[in-house]
Automatic annotation (TrEMBL):
This is adenylate kinase. CDD domains: ADK (cd01428). The lineage of its organism: Eukaryota, Viridiplantae, Streptophyta, Embryophyta, Tracheophyta. It comes from Ananas comosus. Belongs to the adenylate kinase family. Pfam families: ADK, ADK_lid. Residues 154-189 form the Adenylate kinase active site lid domain. The gene is LOC109723614. Gene3D superfamilies: P-loop containing nucleotide triphosphate hydrolases.
Length: 240
């Protein structure tokens, strides 16, 4: 724990002002659902900052629990070392643990979980034990054909992280980074074949989760094919 005397005054003031602003925000427990490339990664930091929520991405949480060697983290590592999938109960346990952090006081955004109806049921049971529940499920709805155009056109300059798109944000010279003149690459995941299998898994496993929460009246459909700024406006409307 940092000694507060050693924290620079501007940093302390910034954090204090942030907490005062957050105190007036309503609590929100959100799930973001959408296929790869639907824009969840663009919107989640905006939602997180606006509503003072913590962002719970299951992959990051599992890695953090393993690194911290928590009792659950040790079990996760054992499963991973054996090449097994981490059980739903373990993942829900890790989420339960993560929610107790001060940064999750106003609520959370769950991203990448639940992926199946069984996981959704286990999550709801865990929240019910805490006396809370999911408030909204934001469904980033988008046509597969638009996603294919979005994802297969992505090019990246690995050293800087600069990204381009052959149609929407092309480099000045095809295949070359504007700044360094070095070659651009396509990530292994950004091919039509990989996308096809990921979309098939999404439709098979995760679309039933949308139906599950629709029956509870929690799903808001977002037009994820729109430009990011317009999607942000739709998110604000949904959460106001």
């Amino acid at each position: 724990m940092a000694n507060l005397e050693d924290v620079p005054t501007p940093d302390l003031m910034t954090e204090l002002l942030r907490r005062m602003k957050c105190a007036s925000k309503p609590d929100k427990r959100l799930i973001l659902i959408g296929p790869p490339g639907s824009g969840k990664g663009t919107q989640s930091p905006i939602i997180k900052d606006e509503y003072c929520l913590c962002h719970l991405a299951t992959g990051d949480m599992l890695r953090a629990a393993v690194a911290a060697k928590t009792p659950l983290g040790i079990k996760v590592k054992e499963a991973m070392d054996k090449g097994e999938l981490v059980s739903d109960d373990l993942v829900v346990g890790i989420i339960d643990e993560a929610m107790k952090k001060p940064s999750c006081q106003k609520g959370f955004i769950l991203d990448g979980f639940p992926r199946t109806v069984v996981q959704a049921q286990k999550l709801d049971e865990m929240l019910a034990k805490q006396g809370s529940k999911i408030d909204k499920v934001l469904n980033f709805a988008i046509d597969d054909a638009i996603l294919e155009e979005r994802i297969t056109g992505r090019w990246i300059h690995p050293p800087s992280g600069r990204t381009y798109h052959s149609k929407f944000a092309p480099p000045k010279v095809s295949g070359i980074d504007d700044v360094s003149g070095e070659p651009l690459i396509q990530r292994k995941d950004d091919t039509a074949e990989v996308l096809k299998s990921r979309l098939e898994a999404f439709h098979r496993q995760t679309e039933p989760v949308i139906d599950y929460y629709s029956k509870k009246g929690l799903v808001v459909q977002l037009p994820a094919e729109k430009p990011p700024k317009e999607v942000t406006t739709e998110v604000e409307k949904a959460l106001s």
